[in-house]
Structure formats: C-alpha cells, structure tokens
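Inverse folding, one chain.
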C-alpha cells in the first residue's frame, strides 16, 4: 500500500512543502494496549513519569521512557495536541540483535501530525550515547539552532523516516540534523526528510565504520548535505540533495565506500541572501579517498541544454569537473552519471525522465522502498537502463509509480433510505497511466468486510444499521500501486426522524435579567448524526442556521412582546421536524437616583414635550420611565396626562391638582428611544410642573425584577411601629429599616412604599431619602393643616434603610406601608408597559359592570388580566393610577390581591371635596382580579387607569 503520486511536472519546492507537512505514512498503527513490550508517552492525558508507562497511564516525557526501556520493548510516542515534547532526550540503554529497542511516533495517516522532539537551548533533541541495537523512527525533530540527533560511541543503530521540519525561526547554517561520531559503527540513516535551516544534513565524523546514508532528502543545507569524513565502509546511495549552499555530497579523508544513485540539484530559485549563488561542486571526493571510492549512477542537476553551469558538478581528488563527461574522461568514474537536467525534473520524476528505472539496484545500502515507504516498481512505459538484480529502481530518494485516476464515483445510488438500505456504486472510470489492469475494492464504511467489483459492473451493499456512511474505493494496479477515492456520504435513516427540542428562558447573570434577551436551549437529538441541519427562527423576522448538537443561542428581541420561536430540523432523508416555544420579552427595572430633570410652566390646555434624553430614557432598550410629577402654582383645578409623543392622547389622568395647592404623584409612561413624552395640561389655567425620573424599564439591559409584597405597615408613629411612638416634629426625621424585614432581602435595589402624613398641625410635605448616600430623595405627599395625605413612591436602597423627613413647621404622624421591592431575579416579575387605558370608571360602569359609586365599607372586584395587553396568566401585579373624584366625605381606599385578607394599609387617602389621584402597584390574585375597598363612611366614585403589568419570570 502506498500513497498516490502527484501529477508530473510538479516542482521541487512544492513537493518539499507537501512532504514536510504531511509526513509519509499510510496510516497510524494501533499498538496493543495490553502489550508488555510497549511503553507509552503522552502528556495530553493523565500521565506520570514514575508510573508503568501503560497506554492508560503513560509517561509524560520521552526521557522517562528512555530511562527504563528494556531490550525488545517499543517506546510509542503519541502526538499530543501541542505536538511537541520539549526537552533534550538522552538514551543510554541498549537492545540486542534479537531484541532491539525501538522508539517510534507510529506511522501517520495522511494529513496527520508527528510527535515532535524539541531540544532546549543548543543541546541535541536526541542523543544516543554508547548504545547498541536501537532503532528510532517516525518522529519529527524540531530545530533550535543546535544538532537534531547525535549518535556517539554506538553501534547497530537505525534512524529511519525522521523528519526535520523547517522552523519558522531558525539560525541559518548552524547545527547538524544527524551526526554520527567517530566512535560509532554499523549505523544506517535512511528515508529522513531534512528541511532548510541546518548547516549539515548528515555528517559522519572521522573514525566511524560501516555507516550507510540512503534514500534521504536534504534541502538547502548551509555547509553540506551529506558529509562523510574518514570512514571505512561508507555507503551513500539514492539520496536527493536539493539546492545545497555548499557541497551536496562530500567524502573526505581516508574513506572507503560507494556513492551511487544519488541526485544533487542546484536551483537558483532556492538561493537567498543567506544562501547566495554557490560555487562549491555538487559532489566532492577527496584525494585520500579517490582510490577507495566507487561513484556511479549519480545525477548532477546543474542546468539543462545551453544554460550556463553555475558551479562545478564534481571535484575528484582535488580536480574540478564541470560535467559528467569530463569526470568520466578524467577519472573513469561516473560511467552512468547524468547531468544537463533542470531541478523541476527531480523529486518524483516526471514520466520518461532519465531518472526512471536507471539506477544500480545492487548498490550497497539500497532499499526496496523509497522515502515515502512505497516499493520500487517497474515503469511499464519506460525502458529499463539500470543494472542489478532488479533493473527498475529510479535514481534519488523518490520512485515514480503508476498514476491511477478515479474519474467516476460521486454519490451512491440512491444516496438515502431507511435502514435496511440497499445502495450501489459504479466500478468503472479509473485509469492507469501505465495501462495496467486494475482491481477494485470497496470499504463500505460500516465495519463489514470490503467487497470487490468487476470493472463496469456496479457493486451493491445493504446497510442494516442506521447511520451515516462514507464508502471508499481502492483501485490497485498489477504492481500494487493504489489510489483511494472517497464517495459522497450516504445515509441509512431510522424509521422515524429525530425529534426536535427547544426551550427558552430569559438571560440572567448575577441576579439580574435582560428581560428582552432569550436564551434558547436546543437539546441534542437522540440520533444527532441523522440531522443534516437546523434553523431557528425567533419570531421577530430573524433566524439563525445552526450546527447539530447541544446549543445555547442568545437572541435580543427588539421590543417587548410575546414571540413564538420555531426550531426546524431537517434530517439526512429530507424529513422535517419542528419544535416551538413562546418567549415573553419584557422589561426589567433600572433604579435611578431621583433628580428633577425639568421644570416648566404649561399653559392652559397646552402640551409640554419631554425628550427621551430629558427623562434619561435614551439608553439601551428603554420602553418606559417611572416619573415623579409635582404640580404647583396652578391657577385653576385640573389634571395632567402623560403619554407617548406621537400617539393619541388617552382619556386618563396622571395627577390632579387644585389652585393654591401643590400635588405630587408618580406615573409610568411609555417612551421611545427617539420620541418624546407629552405632558398635557387639562386645566383652564397654567400650571408649573416639575418632573424627576425615579426609574427606567428596559428590555435590553441587565436589571432587576419586581417582587410584589403582601401590603404591610412598616412605620406608624402613632403606635410606635418601626420608630418611637409620638408625632414627628417639624423639620425632624425618622430612619426606617426596610431590607431584612417582611421578606425584603438585604440585596434589594429599590423599594416601593406608600407613605402618609396624618394628624398634621400645619401644611407641609414629606421628603423620603435613601439612607447611606446623598442627593437621592423624592418629595411627597404635600398636605394642608389637618389633612391626611399619602403617596406611593419608589426609592433606591443603599444600606436597606430610608429616611422620612417632615418639612412642615409643625408636627405630624408618619406612616409607611410596604408595597413591593426590586431586586434579585429569582421569583421576580418583569414589566410590560401598555398604552394608558381607563379600566375602571364607576360613573360609567366601565370595569364594574354598573353605574354606581363604591359604597362605604364596600369592596369592588376588578378584573385586570386578559385585556388591554395584559396576559391572561402569570401576572403578579399591575401598575395603576387610582383616583377618587370629588368625594363627599373623607376616607381611604385599600387595593389588594383578590382572594387574600384585606391588609390594614392605605392606597389612596381622600378628603371631602378634593379630587385625589395616587399611583398604586397592586398585587394580583390568582384569579386575575384585585379588590378595592372603601374604608370611608360615604360612597365614592373611583377611576383606575392601567399603565402596565408585571409578569412572573420567565414569562411565556
């Protein structure tokens, strides 16, 4: 078996690169895991240099194996992911003639990589010191500026099929790839590929005996390709030396031996500033050696035709000879030598090249295989001009083989089917460049025995087990030359297509959620091999094509809403399965340090436009802003309506006010990144408005979710709840602990409170501030003497506490009720803004089903889910603005989840004759309803305007 040969006319340079990168093997061998004769080295797995070196527990370093290897054992060095084993290795242990020691990287599959020995510093990568009967094969040696492999004082050593790759960074003209010292004997250096960067390819020092250098390739050596000095029984045969900067092959000193079948090529294309146009001869045999050396059947590729010969081809016994003819005439040597060739005819010889079948097959040290390990064969269309027992060896390290071309093949027919699945392939279309008869063998790829076919007849096979199979055809000629071709894949499918699986959840990190970003999970199907491709459509017009397997895919939605994502899965038989999931893209809360962003006077029935930047809503994905509004200096009573610019003004109100009184409220209003918020003054007179941003709702930022609480009173100075009993004097404050109590965690970012002042002795207002920081406060409510007033506020938390300050000149009792909090994602709810809509008006019967006031001490049930954009289920709270228009008595409303006990808290406080409105985040009952209880002694009308809803995460 051997690898197919490239087409004719391929240049030396190209072939050198291909050979170094891909190696020369036909397939990686598999050692017996239980073999006591094999030691393993692999630092990519659990390894130990003190262990036994088994395949499951190998050595980490080559040196560890070298220190314990015994005669007859093989050290198998696996190629790790990093390829390299750094550190110089010295072997001092020997084998025997019957039980040699072998170090191997194992043969390589085409396209594979060899394990590399990389020296440290200037020390050799591998030293064989005073050893005998040792073989080293199939390894790469990384050049570091020193020697690659050094053999000292050793005998019976074989260095076979090593590669010395050209490094990216190297010291030119330094080091020797293979050195054999003068105390060594019976050493064979064979089939090695030595790349650029070395001073010498192979160097044998004086005193050595019986050293053979055969079938090696050496490229661009700086000082010499193969240099043998003072050696008895030296054989240099069938080597190829390309573009030497100095002499290609040199025998110097007192040498006896043979130089035959070699190719030395001088090519200007490979010269450089580090290797300028050389002048040294291609072959040198010294005067001391000339009488004891035989040279014949060599090739001096030093130019063709009339082109100038840039350097002598030979120097024999000190005399230069420009051509082979001159050498023959002057010395009688080189009777069959060839010159007049250009370098492009080297490497694998082109068809009809004079290198083909023209070597001396009986030359000492000659191998039966070439540098790739493929056999020496007879080229049937070239006459044999060589000599020896077999007369068809090519000169140099490369042997030309029959070129087999597999023209047809392609797809099996049919390509797909349900197992058991019968298909067939063509067995014609292959050609032999030598016109030899061909045989066909099919590997079906399913582990069954290969099949053979007769040219021209199809071969059929039944795949009984479902799977994807790539069959290959191997075509063999009469000499054993082969060519393998892979067919396109066939699929034997299962009876039913693999099921698709898709789920989604919001993207969370560190207790925060990007409520508009979905993280989709695609589970790997049971028969993932069968799936050809998958497409995930997100439901917003976007899609993504995905490889098959377990995936997590993140997708940012452009706006809040409910989206249906669909996974479409197509298998190898074209069958389609789908999986769907629904994702509810929503908003998460970004607390803001409250500050008045604008102060403007709005004329009667006028509109104030607030840009998104003004209310700090121009960051990623903001869909709504939570604003505090203060209305003062009104000349007539009325209300303000906040709504999204560019939309129709709704019939709702955000805050009501009266002449001479300051009013406050918080409101949630939808915004757009490029649009404005409109504030409409519904009064017949002007009013001055102050607006502060207390928070943002974004679908594209990591932020916090809302946790509605069962309303509970945290502070009441009348009873001593949360603070000392007794009224709070004018200008004084109380500090209230919020986090760490009543279910509010210490990590809460913001709190929602309903704060109130009662038993007021003078007009005034309440300022609520974040404890532990400055400049974080909201104002409200405002009151007149004797009035009970309340507001719902949102305030950031730093250390879990808030400060309530009475700004009046006289005392008042203060109260604070917990409504909810914003914080970590777990069990929290996400916000969905809606266009403002009045969902309750007792004057018209909207929401209540009848035109009637809410009676004293009566309860009204209000359905808040399933309409106006609010989901049917999963809703934990709604964002409302509650108003009591022109009440005839004094009292308060309590808003709470239907189906729960009525809490003892206030949601809206009202005074006879004064319209009042207050924001209310109200927890929703499991039936989608809230309850409104009138704690006053007179019936009142009630309005409820819907601003948005909170749904439990993940929604969908």
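Residues assigned per position:
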């Amino acid at each position: 078996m051997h690898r197919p040969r490239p087409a004719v006319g391929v240049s030396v340079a190209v072939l050198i690169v291909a050979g170094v990168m891909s190696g020369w093997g036909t397939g990686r061998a598999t050692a017996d895991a239980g073999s006591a004769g094999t030691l393993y080295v692999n630092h990519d797995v659990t390894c130990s240099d003190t262990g036994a070196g088994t395949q499951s527990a190998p050595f980490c370093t080559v040196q560890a194996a070298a220190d314990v290897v015994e005669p007859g054992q093989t050290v198998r060095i696996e190629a790790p992911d990093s390829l390299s084993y750094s550190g110089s290795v010295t072997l001092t242990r020997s084998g025997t003639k019957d039980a040699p020691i072998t170090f191997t990287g194992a043969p390589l599959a085409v396209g594979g990589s060899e394990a590399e020995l990389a020296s440290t510093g200037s020390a050799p990568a591998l030293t064989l010191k005073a050893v005998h009967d040792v073989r080293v094969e199939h390894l790469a040696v990384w050049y570091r500026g020193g020697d690659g492999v050094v053999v000292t004082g050793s005998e019976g050593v074989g260095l076979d099929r090593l590669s010395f790759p050209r490094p990216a960074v190297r010291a030119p003209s330094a080091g020797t790839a293979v050195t054999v010292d003068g105390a060594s004997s019976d050493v064979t250096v064979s089939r090695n590929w030595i790349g650029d960067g070395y001073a010498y390819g192979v160097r044998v020092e004086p005193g050595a005996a019986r050293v053979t250098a055969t079938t090696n390739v050496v490229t661009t050596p700086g000082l010499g390709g193969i240099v043998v000095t003072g050696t008895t029984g030296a054989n240099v045969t069938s080597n190829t030396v390309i573009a030497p900067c100095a002499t290609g092959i040199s025998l110097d000193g007192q040498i006896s031996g043979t130089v035959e079948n070699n190719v030395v090529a001088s090519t200007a294309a490979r010269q450089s500033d580090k290797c300028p146009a050389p002048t040294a001869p291609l072959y040198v045999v010294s005067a001391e050696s000339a009488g004891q050396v035989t040279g014949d059947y060599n090739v001096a590729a030093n130019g063709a035709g009339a082109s100038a010969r840039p350097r002598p081809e030979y120097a024999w016994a000190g005399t230069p000879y420009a051509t082979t003819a001159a050498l023959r005439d002057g010395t009688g040597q080189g009777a069959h030598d060839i010159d007049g060739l250009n370098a492009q005819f080297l490497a694998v010889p082109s068809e009809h090249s004079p290198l083909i079948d023209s070597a001396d097959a009986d030359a000492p040290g000659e191998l039966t295989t070439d540098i790739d390990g493929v056999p020496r064969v007879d080229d049937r269309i070239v006459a044999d001009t060589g000599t020896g027992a077999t007369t068809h060896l090519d000169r140099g390290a490369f042997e030309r083989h029959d070129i087999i071309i597999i023209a047809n093949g392609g797809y099996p027919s049919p390509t797909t089917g349900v197992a058991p699945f019968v298909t067939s392939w063509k067995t014609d279309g292959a050609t032999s460049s030598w016109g030899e008869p061909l045989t066909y063998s099919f590997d079906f790829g399913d582990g069954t025995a290969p099949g053979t076919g007769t040219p021209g007849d199809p071969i059929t096979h039944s795949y009984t087990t479902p799977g994807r199979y790539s069959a290959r055809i191997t075509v063999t000629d009469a000499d054993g030359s082969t060519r393998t071709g892979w067919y396109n894949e066939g699929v034997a499918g299962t009876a039913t297509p693999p099921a698709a699986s898709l789920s989604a959840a919001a993207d969370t990190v560190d207790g925060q959620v990007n409520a508009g970003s979905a993280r989709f999970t695609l589970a790997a199907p049971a028969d993932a091999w069968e799936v050809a491709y998958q497409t995930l459509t997100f439901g917003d017009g976007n899609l993504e094509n995905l490889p098959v397997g377990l995936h997590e895919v993140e997708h940012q939605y452009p706006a809040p809403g409910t989206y249906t994502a669909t996974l479409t899965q197509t298998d190898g038989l074209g069958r389609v399965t789908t999986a769907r999931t629904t994702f509810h893209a929503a908003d998460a809360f970004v607390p803001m340090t409250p500050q008045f962003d604008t102060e403007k006077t709005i004329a009667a029935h006028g509109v104030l436009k607030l840009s998104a930047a003004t209310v700090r809503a121009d960051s990623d994905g903001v869909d709504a802003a939570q604003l505090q509004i203060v209305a003062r200096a009104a000349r007539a009573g009325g209300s303000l309506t906040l709504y999204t610019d560019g939309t129709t003004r709704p019939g709702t109100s955000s805050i009501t006010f009266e002449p001479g009184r300051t009013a406050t409220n918080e409101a949630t209003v939808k915004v757009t990144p490029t649009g404005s918020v409109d504030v409409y003054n519904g009064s017949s007179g002007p009013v001055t408005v102050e607006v502060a941003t207390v928070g943002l709702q974004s679908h594209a930022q990591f932020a916090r979710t809302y946790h509605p609480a069962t309303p509970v009173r945290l502070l009441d100075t009348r009873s001593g709840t949360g603070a000392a009993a007794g009224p709070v004097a004018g200008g004084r404050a109380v500090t209230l602990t919020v986090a760490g109590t009543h279910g509010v965690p210490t990590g809460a970012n913001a709190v929602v409170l309903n704060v109130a002042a009662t038993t007021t002795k003078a007009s005034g207002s309440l300022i609520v501030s974040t404890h532990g920081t400055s400049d974080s406060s909201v104002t409200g409510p405002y009151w007149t003497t004797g009035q009970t007033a309340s507001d719902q506020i949102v305030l950031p938390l730093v250390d879990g506490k808030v400060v309530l300050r009475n700004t009046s000149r006289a005392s008042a009792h203060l109260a604070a009720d917990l409504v909810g909090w914003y914080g970590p994602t777990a069990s929290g709810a996400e916000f969905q803004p809606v266009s403002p809509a009045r969902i309750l008006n007792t004057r018209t019967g909207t929401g209540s089903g009848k035109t009637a006031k809410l009676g004293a001490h009566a309860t009204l049930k209000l359905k808040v889910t399933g309409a106006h954009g609010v989901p049917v289920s999963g809703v934990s709270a709604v964002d409302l603005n509650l108003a009591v228009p022109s009440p005839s008595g004094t009292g308060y409303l309590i808003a709470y989840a239907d189906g729960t006990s009525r809490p003892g808290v206030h949601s809206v406080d009202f005074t006879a004759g004064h319209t009042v409105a207050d924001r209310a985040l109200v927890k929703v009952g499991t039936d989608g309803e809230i309850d409104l209880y009138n704690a006053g002694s007179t019936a009142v009308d009630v309005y409820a305007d819907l601003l948005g809803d909170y749904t439990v995460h993940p929604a969908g």
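The CA atoms of residues 176 and 200 lie 5 Å apart. Residues 830-952 form a domain with the Jelly Rolls fold (CATH 2.60.120).
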